[in-house]
Amino acid sequence: MSGAGATSSHDHEPLMRLTWTDPVTGTRGYLVVHTLVSGLATGGTRMRAGCTVTEVEDLARGMAAKTATFGLPVGGAKGGIDFDPKDPRAIGVLERFCEAMRPWLDAHWVTAEDLGVPQHLIDDVFARLGLQQSYHAAITRSADPERTLRRVRAGLTAAVPGGLLGDVIGGYGVAQACLGAGEAWDWPVAETTVAIQGIGTMGGAAAWYLHEAGMRVVAVADAAGTLHRAEGLDIPVLLELRDAFGEIDRSRVSPDVQLLPRDAVISTPADILVPAAISYAITADNMFDVAAKVVVEAANSATTPEAEAMLVARGIPVIPDFVANAGAAAWAWWLLLGQVGADPVEGFLRLRTEMRAKVALLLHQWNVAGVPPRWTGLELARPDRDASARAEKPAQLIIP
């Protein structure tokens, strides 16, 4: 588990690990269900070359902590496929994986987008399999599945600044975590600087909403390298230059933007560092390069346990992924449960309120008592809101 010496009641063996081999390409795929609550678990499906069952298990454990921290009546799971999403065969691999996982997707596992798998793609696959939408296992339990499906689709496709609500809500939550961190130290918004590693769905949306709020995003990194401008980057322009894989067309970048190596984003002088790309991006080997005052994990398991312990020893707190990037999962379940509707204002307000409150608590404990934010975050997931404890209760999930 990603954590600086912290333990929690989520540190138990997962309920199930499943390994799949694609009959066409021979690639491996994995499903790890950490906990079931009311017979359900939630967690996205990722695709990247080199994905391992250990990685997927870490992510499933993180999802269990995420759902408990935000009080969601569901357990944690994760899917992963060891395949390059840029390969033209990737859609076929994803479809065969979902077909093989159909017993779980039909009744127990609510999945969604993750690294390498955008929401529209996984929804297309579900539609071809006759499952309509990736929240299928929950939607079919509702009192009126058709009405719930309409509400979910309306929410996911609601147009907002920066894109569609379903695509940007996770990044919006990360932006609120960053703004909450600034509030904890009374940093003036316009003078606060941010470096973001990863400019895809999560990192791009975080960059958009931070820019909109007035923070200076001074560096962003994609697979091709880091773009840096000390005065602040024109984020809306850069986002328009991205391709389908979140890479920016360098031929159209303003000449006053520095083009640096990809790893330079880690050492960029900035108040906040947001790793929003791959898992395990900050390690014991590059941790000393971190120049930020706080790390906000937008990617799942972005910091290894060793690196986090060393950052904490340096006085650099890490806002853990199961808090900072929980916005998409929390909002999706609020939407499913009818606690918010498709109106973006409603979803943004609830997420902003809950994220700011949690970050304020985490950093208060850090500032007053030196308690690492992960430890305080794990306390939020104990014991009556803990997924493993709730899994033992015969609670019924009611979806209107």
Topology:
Blueprint: E1 16-21, E2 28-33, E3 41-42, E4 45-47, H1 53-69, E5 75-81, H2 90-100, H3 102-107, E6 109-110, H4 119-128, H5 136-139, H6 145-156, E7 159-160, E8 163-164, H7 165-184, E9 193-197, H8 201-213, E10 216-222, E11 225-228, H9 235-240, E12 258-260, H10 264-267, E13 272-275, E14 294-296, H11 305-313, E15 318-319, H12 321-324, H13 327-336, H14 344-369, H15 373-380, H16 387-391
Parallel strand pairs: 3-5, 3-6, 4-5, 9-10, 9-13, 13-14, 14-15
Antiparallel strand pairs: 1-2, 2-5, 7-8, 10-11, 11-12
Features:
400 residues; alpha/beta; Rossmann fold; seven-stranded mixed sheet; six-stranded mixed sheet; 16 helices; 14% strand
Describe this structure in words.
By secondary structure, this protein is α/β, with parallel strands linked by helices. The chain folds into two domains: 126 residues, Rossmann fold (3-Layer(aba) Sandwich), CATH 3.40.50.10860; 214 residues, Rossmann fold, CATH 3.40.50. It is 41% helix and 14% strand. It contains 16 helices and 15 strands. The strands form three sheets. It has a seven-stranded mixed β-sheet. Strands 1, 2, 3, 4, 5 and 6 form a six-stranded mixed β-sheet that branches. The two termini are 35 Å apart.
What would you report as the Rg, rounded to the nearest angstrom?
20 Å
Under CATH, the topology of the largest domain can be stated as: Rossmann fold
Number of helices: 16
Give the strand order, joined by hyphens, for the main sheet. Answer: 12-11-10-9-13-14-15
Distance between the termini: 35 Å
CATH architecture of the largest domain: 3-Layer(aba) Sandwich
Portion of residues in helices? Answer: 40-55%
Structural class: alpha/beta
Number of strands: 15
CATH homologous superfamily title of the largest domain? NAD(P)-binding Rossmann-like Domain
Sheet with the most strands?
Answer: 7 strands, mixed
The CATH class designation of the largest domain is Alpha Beta
- The overall number of domains is 2
List unreliable stretches of 5+ residues.
Answer: 1-7, 385-395
**Overall 3D shape:** globular
Please report which band the strand proportion falls in: under 5%, 5-15%, 15-25%, 25-35%, 35-45% or over 45%: 5-15%
What's the mean pLDDT score? 93
